[in-house]
Design goal:
Length: 241
């Protein structure tokens, strides 16, 4: 119920800001794009997982008189797909993991009015709403392959807390392009055991444990409401005669 309340309140706030008399103080936005991600701790490497990222958000200035520049507070409600992928090409271990989150970041942005760029950083709360995972090891014993044991015995945590940072710039008028980095501060899955078949008689090689964390980069197009089209246009200088 708490998650549904957050979603409803955020959506009402965003769209309400577009219609109220004080809308000039708030800048609502909608976004859509994709995320590339990996899961740190699963013994697989590379941002190979591709998923959707998008939603709605709102930004407000810390200083009310500076609505188009300086430091701004922002929040969003996003549907985000993160996970990991390893296809059966060069590795006999095939793994697919898709984690769908409702993410609510709280960020501080700095808007450079003259340059048309925005930098931001903050904390993000994520609620796991869907999990899809499959893994296959085609050979029972393969020397040198480090693979998880009893992975189905370890559930993913429902709550995620991440640090986020982003960079965005104006594409055209109210359209922005945003690049965001995300990394989990807390494990999303704890104490997953791994087995190394290189020397099964040696306890040192037999097993160890890892915590999983999500790590992603998102690329989105953002449309900002209630923003003057000339806000981020650079000053044109006249030629000297």
């Amino acid at each position: 119920m708490k998650i549904k309340s957050i979603i409803i309140a955020t959506v009402l706030l965003v769209f309400g800001c577009c219609k109220t008399a004080t809308a000039q103080l708030f800048k609502a936005n909608v976004s859509a794009g994709f995320a590339i991600s990996q899961i740190d701790g699963d013994e697989l490497y590379g941002f190979k997982h591709l998923g959707f990222s998008g939603g709605v958000g709102v930004m407000m200035p810390i200083i009310p008189d500076k609505t188009d520049e300086g430091f701004q507070l922002s929040t969003e409600i996003l549907l985000s797909q993160r996970g990991a992928t390893n296809n059966h090409l060069t590795d006999p271990f095939e793994y697919h993991c898709n984690l769908t989150y409702i993410d609510v970041p709280l960020m501080i942005h700095y808007v450079d009015k003259r340059g048309g760029v925005t930098l931001g950083a903050g904390i993000q709360y994520g609620r796991l709403i869907s999990t899809k995972e499959s893994w296959t090891l085609y050979d029972t014993m393969i020397n040198g392959m480090d693979r998880p044991l009893n992975i189905n015995d370890h559930n993913f945590k429902k709550n995620d807390l991440s640090v986020v940072a982003d960079f965005r710039f104006t594409i055209w008028r109210n359209f922005k392009f945003d690049v965001r980095w995300q990394y989990s501060l807390l494990p999303i899955r704890k104490d997953v055991g791994f087995f190394n078949s290189y020397n099964p008689d040696d306890d040192y090689y037999k097993s160890w444990y890892r915590d999983y964390k999500t790590h992603s980069l998102t690329f989105k197009v953002i449309y900002v409401f209630n923003e003057d089209n000339d806000t981020y246009h650079r000053t044109k200088y006249r030629r000297r005669r």
